[in-house]
Amino acid sequence: xxxxxxxxxxxxxxxxxxxxxxxxxxxxxxxxxxxxxxxxxxxxxxxxxxxxxxxxxxxxxxxxxxxxxxxxxxxxxxxxxxxxxxxxxxxxxxxxxxxxxxxxxxxxxxxxxxxxxxxxxxxxxxxxxxxxxxxxxxxxxxxxxxxxxxxxxxxxxx
Length: 158
Hints:
- By secondary structure, this protein is of the alpha+beta class.
- It contains three helices and eight strands; from the N terminus they run H-E-E-H-E-H-E-E-E-E-E.
- Strand 6 and strand 7 form a beta hairpin.
């Protein structure tokens, strides 16, 4: 299976259907895993994704994917999933979704002495992102960021 071509064809078909249902397509992934060819669609909606959301999207995509035969007759497994709590923030849509959120970032080697920092995303553009870090605004070039993801903190409950 040509995963690049299948992914392109899948995205063209999948995105409008999923968006019409009120979800955002975060990513479409095509690869061999668990002894089968897989097409995995990661979806997002504010408030989180439920099992019912995944089932709804799966049912909406199953028929059109089969009718279009995007794999040229090759069998595949269709997976619908949430991107997960710790999914890296990469695209402008990811940045937009996370405005005002507390994020954890690590730098590429040689950029900063600190291994990781936590700050609130205040703004972004194609070249940089501005964070509130302990009350101070800091603008960081996006190319200097190794990883950026939601900060997950565990609080002790008494």
